[in-house]
Amino acid sequence: MDAMTSAFHGISLLPHLGVIRVEGEDAAKFLHGQLTQDFALLGLSEARLAALCSAKGRVLATFVGFKRSHTDIMLVCLRDILPAMVKRLSMFVLRAKVRLTDATDAFVLRGLLGPTVAEWAGQAAAPWSRVDQAGASIVWLYPADGAACALWVAPAGTLQPDAPVVPNDVWSLAEVHSGVAWVGAIMTDAFVPQMLNYESVGGVNFKKGCYPGQEVVARSQFRGTLKRRAVLAHSDLPLKPGDELFVAAEPDQPVATVVQIAPALLGGFDAIVSGQISAFAAGKLHLGGSHGAAVTVHAAPYPLLEDI
Questions:
Q1: pTM for this one?
Q2: What range does the domain containing 286 cover?
């Protein structure tokens, strides 16, 4: 734990992330009707974790969104899914006064870790809090092994924080250890939000108005039909998103799916895994088949909504 905490310190480039800019008088209202979180009441000192779902309630992509002004909203997402999301969201604009563009080249994204967050964003704040600092927007994320994590987003040309450069693999590991998964092209349309614990980390608002897939998401939450959750996992052998995991008792039926991975500091790979709650009780799954390499599982690093 100490080695991990000390590694989570500095600034990281984020080439895997991009920015969708949503501008116009109806920007917040439009996103409010498309995503799982409340954008109508989004203040300038906060951000939102949100998902875009299909009509069947499956997550197509995930975002961290915040307002630069009341008519200018940034959506940070995985770059591999960004063009498809601009196209998909634009299909529903209709008469709304809103314009969506790929603004990745117009903004610089960096990841801040550990003491670097406090140096540039001030004292610790709750996840999804936002501050403006020297022309940049800084959004607090969920911590990783107790180390603070934040997104730094600024117009191109803004002087970036002066801090040690952290390799991208370390930032990826912090993302995994935070337990909050990003969904992009590889895992699109595979999970309802609760299978990624999104309702427990501020990614779903059950009091807001309609959005695509809302009925399925609400039914999963309130009718006790949810049987899959996200946990952390470790494998000595390489993992990749989409890999299926098994238990010995059910050799022909996968019980979990690898969602997001990163090389572990001490060797092997750490991951966020979504799977059957009952299967996690054994503490060990197997990669690719019931006799495959062992994958150990650990609880999510935050309480789930039913435990709060």
A1: 0.94
A2: 227-307
